[in-house]
Structure formats: C-alpha cells, structure tokens
Amino acid sequence: MLTFIVMRTLQMVPPLFGLTIILFVLLRIGGDPVAHLVHPDATPAEIQQVREAYGFDRPWVEQYVRQLTLIVTGDFGDSYRYRAPAMPLVLERLPATLELALASIVIALVIAIPAGILSAVYQNSWLDVLVTVTSTLGRAMPNFWIGIMLILVVAVQLRWLPVAGRDGLAHLILPAITLGTSLATTIARLLRSSLLEIMRREFMTTARAKGLRYWTVVLRHGLRNALVASVTVLGLQVAWLLGGSVIVEEVFAWPGIGRLMVRSVLLRDLTLVQAGVLVFALIVMVANLLVDVTYAFINPRIRFS
Amino acid sequence: MNAVKVFRSLLRSPVGLIGALLVVGAFVSAFGAGWFSAIDPTQFHLRNRLAPPVWAGGTWEFPLGTDQLGRDIASRLMHGARVSLMVGVLGVAVSTLIGVTIGLLAGYYRGWVDAVLSRLIDTFMAIPFIVLALAVIAVIGPQGGDNITLLVIVLGVSGWIDFARVVRGETLGVVELEYVEAVRALGQNRFWILVRHVLPNVSASIIVLVTLNVASVIIAESSLSFLGLGVQPPTVTWGLMLADGRDHLATSWWLATFPGIAITLTTLGMILLGDWLRDVLDPRMMT
To answer: Where would you tag: which of A56, A84, A144, B137 has the fewest CB atoms within 10 A of its CB?
Structure first.
C-alpha cells in the first residue's frame, strides 16, 4: 500500500511540471508581462527598471527556471491590486472554498445515494422516471441560475435564509444546495447504472439464493460494489465542482478563491490569477490522489497491479 | 448507418425527438428573431419599465414583461439565442479541431509523442474549465466591441481536453486493427492514413462529444457573461439578462426567471440529442 501511495504521488510530478509551463506561457501570450506590473503611466526608464528587477530581460529558459524556483518557494510576487504577496491572499480564502465544496459533496451524496438506489431497484417505475427526468434537467440547468432561483424563492419570498455572505451555517445552506444538486444529478445517474449492472451479476443471485433478504443483498452486496465504481468518477467531478464554485461564490458573495479570481480577472491582476489557477489545480490533483488511494484501499486488485 | 436510417430512428425515439425539437426551436428563434418580434431588443420603453408578463398583470405588447430599462424580454430572449448558439457552435468547432488533432497524433504515433501529449492532457484536466477560461481572459484582456470572438477563442482553447482524451483512446484501438496495418503496408503516407482511415472510425464519438460540448459551452458563455467577463452590452445575451435579473429579484422575478429557462431548454435539447446519438451511433466511449 505504501509503495502504491508513493508511486501515485510521484505521478503528480509531470502534471505539476506541466502546470508551471502553462502558467509561464500564459503570462507571456498576452504581450509584455511587465505591462501588468507597472503603473499605467510609468516612464520608459521605470519600465526598464521593473523589467530588470523581475529578470524579464533575461533569456526565456533563465526566466522559466527563475519562475520555477519562485513557485516552489511559494513566492508568486505581489498582487497589483492588494499590494501584498499573492499566494497568502489566495490561501486566506481556501477554507471558505473548501467548506463550500465539502458541504456540497455531503448534500450531493445525501440526495444521490437514495435516489440512485431507488431508481435502480424500481427500474422503469414512476420513481425511476422521476429521478431520471430530474437528473437530466439538473444537468441542463446552469448551476448559478439554480442559485438565483433559490435566492428568489427561499431568501427573498419566504425569507427563510440569508441572501448572501458567509456568517455561520445558515449562510452555507443555499450555496451548498446550489452546487450539491448539480453534483447529485451526476452521482445519482452513475450509481443507478452501475447498480443495475451489478444486480445482473451472478453473485447477487447467489446471495439471494442463500436466503438473504432482498434489501440486505441490494445494500450490502450491490451498493458496496456500485459505490466502488462511483468513487473514481467522484475524482473527475472535483474539477467540475471547483469550476462551479467560482460562479456560485460570486452569486452568493461567498468569500472564497473563486470570487477572488473573478475580481482579479476583472482588474487584470495577473499574479493573483496565476496563484489562483495553481491552487485550484493543486486541490484537484490532491483530491484525485486521495480518491485513487481510497480506491486502492477498497479494491486490492488496483493496489497490486 | 446512413442518414435516412438515423432520421427514422429519431422519429421513433421520444428522447431524441424532444432534443431535436428543442435544438431546432432554439435555432429558429435565434435566426428568426427579427421576423417573430417587431420590437427592437435594445430599445428602451421607459414608461413601461419592469412591466410584468401578460398573465401576471402585464399587456400583450410585452408578453414576457420588460426589464429595468423597459426593454422587451421576449424579444431579448430570442436575440440572446443567437449569441449563445454562435459562441456554442464556433467554440466547439475550435475545441474539436485542437482536441481531435492532438488525440489522433497521440494515439497514432504513441511513444514519446503520446507521452508528452498525454501529460499535457493530464495537466489540463486538473484545471477546471471555467478557471482556465478566466485565466485566458485575464491574460488576453478586453478586446473592445462585444467580445464574441474573444469568447469563441477562450472557450474553444479551454474545452479541447475531452476531445483529445476520447479520440486518443479510440485511435489507440483503431490503429491496432488489421486494415490500418494493411494500408500502412501499401505505403500510404501517415497524414492520409489518419484522415482517410482512422478519423472516420472515431467520428461517432466526436459527433456525440460535439453535441454535449455545445451545451457546456453555452452554459460557460452565459456564466462568463453573467460575471461581466463575457459578451458586453449592448449585445443581448442570456447571461447578461440574468445579471440584470439578479439585481431586481426583490421586485421583478421575471427578469431572472425567463433567461434561465431559455438556457435550460437549449442545453437540455443538446443533451437529449447527444444521449440519443450515443445510443444510435453506439461509440465505445466512457464519458
């Protein structure tokens, strides 16, 4: 198991390396990177000074190596707008983003697991049709619009929950439902199809023939196997979930990394944008690592292959 | 499978038929917008600001009501379809071109080409689609005008990964087949083998991905426009209409409701059509 974890962690190195190259190229396709670092009416002499201070007058390879060292040490340079180091500004907002993401995953599982099981067990019943239609609609609705509609009904009309901001559990509910329902549609659909496939397997018939009750077989033998299949897809969904959180944070004025990114893009604060992209990608990579380790833990065949 | 057979099976499939009707409906309202609605979508009717829809106390002059500047919502919805579909279709065309090329090359040449391209795909998969799009917008910056070209490029460049991944996987399988071996033995040049013999065999998956990706690009375009980073006013788009609607939620529910329904119906059409195509064309794909 330890070997697997080490090997899997090492596999993160090439994409991380690729990421630094992408960030390097990205900053340079938009023209002169110095233009983002100086005051709009800086004199040519000042521009030249900044260029030399940041090493932008050096050869590309040297610039890249320099940037790589800075990234490894966590130093992204200062944010143009906040006049403070970019990385700490992003990390400050990490807890808010993770809180929203985790709450959404919990809500998604609470909705999707029963929905997936019921629609597979009662295949082609009205319940199955309801789950299928709802999850297809959920796939088509932009999640920020679901958020706006929730604000309209729950916060504005019924006045049950606050409209926006982050101040305790009440504020978390609506944004988490917004993101969670979209994720739930994917998980429910997946769980339904993998459960249907597993229930056709012979070991399920054997379990029934042993005299186990129907629901015991479905939950103990069927669900466990179906969940294993769903875990890998959950890893792929992390990137999707974080992308969704960017817009949902903006809708609910949730002070996370996504909202910071949107503001930084509007002001073209490129150092902050860079730091944000790196942190998002790191979360996705670490989450996928965790998913793979969990998967190997439940499924020995992966561990030893 | 020929076109007639595909069409016949469409008529037999409720899912495919609903999808096709929704998509056709979106295109018809987009390109017939000027013909259906005599009202200019950008014209102010300041006396009729925030007029409700006809069934909620409004008039037939503005059947779906008006916004905060008295602009006709029904007419704006139809004109908004034009931008969404244009960005969706053109953006996906860019993604398809990039993704299919990378996927074919990685799958056909294998070796170090595949190793490098696959690591590239892995890296891009770690960056959420919308985050990548935001980063590209930050770098390129506003180009003036309505920003539509910028969005097509940004969303096209950010959305190729699905295509590359699926096409690479399928090409790996197709290249193993005997007939590819045979044309190679005949001395055909590599470019011709890829285009003439490998591409047609992976085209079913590409068609399905195109349909489903148009839906995601439409959602992405409306998200970016909603954030103020996409299409710029006075061009009419659903995302900008939603942004206006959010500011008037307390008084005028219709502003934020109708554009959302329009987006949902359009993407729903694409998704249903895509699911149906996947069943009919039966590509061996995982997504």
So the answer is: A84
Mutate to test the interface with A, among B131, B240, B253 (most CBs of A within 10 A): B131
The model's pLDDT over A72-102, given as tens digits with 9 standing for 90+, comes to: 787 777 777 787 888 888 899 999 999 999 9
Q: Is the CB of A15 inside 8 Å of chain B's CB atoms? A: yes
Model pLDDT, residue B287: 42
Displacement of CA A206 from its chain's centroid (Å): 40
How high is the ipTM of this complex? 0.86
Both tokens of A43, joined, read: 């004199």
Give the A window 121-150 contacts with B, CB below 8 Å.
Answer: 136-137, 139-142, 144-145, 148-149
Let me know: does B10 contact B17? Beta carbons within 8 Å.
yes
Closest CA to B95 of B54, B37, B151, B155: B155
Contacts of B259 in chain A (CB under 8 A): 145
Alpha-carbon torsion, ordered A61, A67, A72, A76, to 10 deg:
-170
Tokens of A296: 């190997």
Report the alpha-carbon angle A100-A237-B157, nearest 5. Answer: 105
- Does the distance separating the beta carbons of A14 and B123 come in below 8 Å? yes
**Which residues in chain A are closer than 8 Å to B132, comparing Cβ atoms?**
277
Question: What is the 8-class DSSP label of residue A85?
Answer: B
pLDDT of res. B88? 93
Q: State the amino acid at position A144 in one-letter form.
A: F
In 3D space, the residue among A89, A182, A268, A156 whose CA is nearest the CA of residue B223 turns out to be A182
Rg (CA), chain B: 22
